[in-house]
Amino acid sequence: MMRIVLDLQACQTDSHKRGIGRYSCALAKAMARQRGEDELRFALNNIFAARAETVREEFSGLVAPGMFSYYQYPRFDKTLDFAHNYQRPVAGALVRNHYAWLHPDLLHISSVFEGWYAQSAVPGRLSDLPGVIISATLYDIIPLLFPDWYMPTGPLKHFYHQKYRLLQECDLLLAISEASRKDAINYLGIAPEKIVTIAGAAEDRFRPLPISADEAQTLLRRYGLQKPFILYTGGLDYRKNLTGVISAFAMLPPEIRQTWQFAIVCDIDPVNEMILLRHAAKEGLADREIVFTGFVPEEDLIRLYNLCTLFIFPSLYEGFGLPVLEAMCCGAPVLGANNSSIAELIGREDALFDA
User: Fold this and answer.
1) 10 Å Cβ neighbour count for 171?
2) What pLDDT was estimated at residue 83?
3) 286 C-beta neighbours (distance < 10 Å), count
4) E strands along 207-294, which residues?
5) Among 191, 145, 193, CA closest to 168
6) 265 touches 232 (CB < 8 A)
7) Cβ atoms within 10 Å, residue 84
């Protein structure tokens, strides 16, 4: 029997609103269901106490509450940048001590890339945990592929290169796509036998649903949707290519475009929303042709996948592209960019386009 410890901090930070958090929780639940005689424990960050409780509730019925443990450290001084914040190494050491206290045979880190924002922390080194097999989920190495956008400053470069060294220390990496696996081999020098592609899956609740006309109308009104709509959900950063897809939508003939709305589902701040709305206006789009819904709870997102006429995913690069799979599982027609893992997921040339 093995004792396996999973760090699920990625399910607590802002990552829980994105694919990384949803993927981490789904993988952990699948492991819980298939653990057999192995002992499976979960480590959570007590700085995010409210989310810790939510995560524990999600595993109700799968594992006993006593299988969860919580690490704690003093909160950081936000005025110090990553490279010069002496508190972060201390926090990382305390997290590592918590791992050691659990005496795992195998330790799995759901996301080594936590730690830049807010109060999250990941140890700077893991190889000095004696007798422990270290593994981690590899989502992508996009900052290394787009350094001008994702590593523009010294502190950010320091952060990412530390995380890449952490990946290189691992005994095993679980890549979420073959594209990510090949990138890690080619750019990080990971030995091919130390990294395997496990792919990904949407949770069972992403499925076609019977939705009444009244329920649909109430939901669509809540998010300002008054016409049949095209849907996107994901992040806002450069590689997501939102300006590109807004421009493409504007190129549709007016008589076609006027019958649709383009719904962008994401946790967007007022500044970025204004930037994208100005871009839409510059491209000739009228008011309400583009609708920013803001953050949408998962229950509503599943229904929006079910109700959309088309889901579109225009990213310049993805490590996996979980929304593509979620939309397909809900029965939505999907178009995506012909690159990276998106092409792997869609698997049809006639549903791909050049981004």
Assistant:
1) 14
2) 62
3) 11
4) 229-233, 261-265, 290-292
5) 191
6) yes
7) 9
Distances (CA, A) of 60 to 10, 32, 57, 64, 344: 19, 11, 5, 7, 34
One-letter-per-residue 3-state SS of 144-182: HHCHHHHCCCHHHHHHHHHHHHHHHHCCEEEECCHHHHH
pLDDT higher than threshold 70 for residue 151: yes
Q: How many CA atoms lie within 13 A of 285 on its CB side?
A: 26
Q: What is the pLDDT of residues 181-216, one digit of tens each?
A: 999 999 999 999 999 999 888 888 999 999 999 999
Q: Which domains does the chain have, with CATH numbers?
A: 3-197 (3.40.50.2000), 213-353 (3.40.50.2000)
pTM for this structure? 0.84
pLDDT at 308: 98
**pLDDT tens-place string over residues 335-346:** 999 999 999 999
Quote the CA–CA distance of 322 and 324 in Å, as a whole number.
5
Nearest Cα neighbor of 339 from 145, 197, 189, 112 is 145
User: Rounded distance, CA 315 to CA 116, Å?
Assistant: 23
| Residue 39 tokens, joined | 């002992």
Angle between helices 19-33 and 322-329 (to 10 degrees): 70
The answer to whether the beta carbons of residues 126 and 115 sit under 8 Å apart is: no
Q: What does the alpha-carbon distance between residue 79 and residue 95 come to, in Å, rounded to a whole number?
A: 22
Residue-wise pLDDT for 244-261, tens only, equals 999 999 999 999 999 999
Number of H helices, E strands in the chain: 14, 13
Pairing of strands 229-233, 3-7: unpaired
Q: Return d(Cα 5, Cα 218) in angstroms, integer.
A: 43
CA atoms within 13 A on the CB side of 60: 6
Query: How large a percentage of the chain has pLDDT more than 70?
Result: 98
Q: For 6-44, what is each residue's pLDDT tens digit? A: 999 999 998 887 778 888 998 999 999 999 999 999 999
Q: Which two tokens stand for residue 150?
A: 């994702």
What is the rounded end-to-end Cα distance, in angstroms, of the chain?
A: 48
Question: What's CA 164's distance to the chain center, in Å?
Answer: 18
The per-residue DSSP string of 332-345 comes to --EEEESSHHHHHH
